[in-house]
Design goal:
Layout (H helix, E strand, L loop, with lengths): L1 E6 L10 E2 L1 H12 L11 H6 L4 E5 L2 H11 L5 E3 L16 E2 H13 L9 H22 L1 E6 L1 H13 L3 E4 L7 E5 L1
Parallel strand pairs: 1-6, 3-4, 3-6
Antiparallel strand pairs: 1-8, 2-5, 7-8
Helix pairs in contact: 5-6
């Protein structure tokens, strides 16, 4: 049994403009609906190694698009379960760069600040469910490759190790591959 986790390619809408809280909320919406940038391509060597895997993806456009770019085919299975952990959006009274908003808001979120989005506790539970779902798919198809998102993949990796799988490879970068075997 083999499970491969691939972080999506660099999104088209991943700029780092100066934004107030309302502008950041709009940035998150655009980021979540973004496809992969034309300049962001996976390593050709990696692609050839995974052509026999069952294709799984988050249902967000950048993950589905990454699967198609990487494999030449759409995912065989898509699910909300594999979406990125929410990017929280707090109404704070200042203007900073988009990625500073992401890091600041994620810090507040992990410390337990609530909002109108998935809580950090809920997101961690979803990551555990996602890891279980991947194991079930791998038991059925033997080789599975998931196209998903950085922060969720980080948490899925923890659960796969806890379930006894051996981690053979790890990368957090765009198109980064993390590999597991039982």
């Amino acid at each position: 049994m083999e499970i491969i986790l691939v972080r999506h390619g660099r999104p088209q809408k991943a700029g780092n403009a100066l934004l107030n809280a309302a502008g950041f909320a709009n940035w998150v919406k655009n980021y979540n609906h973004s496809l992969v940038s034309e300049q962001s391509l996976p390593c050709k060597i990696s692609q050839a190694k995974y052509n026999e895997h069952y294709l799984v993806s988050s249902d967000l456009p950048r993950a589905v698009h990454s699967c198609s770019i990487f494999s030449g085919s759409p995912p065989q299975y898509q699910s909300r379960l594999f979406r990125e952990m929410d990017i929280p959006r707090y109404k704070l009274p200042f203007t900073i760069r988009a990625w500073s908003w992401v890091y600041l808001n994620r810090t507040l979120w992990t410390l337990g600040k609530k909002g109108r989005f998935e809580s950090y506790a809920q997101a961690r539970k979803r990551a555990k469910l996602a890891a279980s779902e991947l194991i079930a798919l791998a038991q059925q198809h033997d080789k599975v490759i998931l196209f998903s998102h950085g922060y969720l993949i980080l948490h899925i990796r923890k659960h796969l190790r806890r379930y006894g799988l051996t981690q053979l490879q790890k990368s957090n970068s765009y198109w980064g591959v993390s590999a597991f075997k039982d």
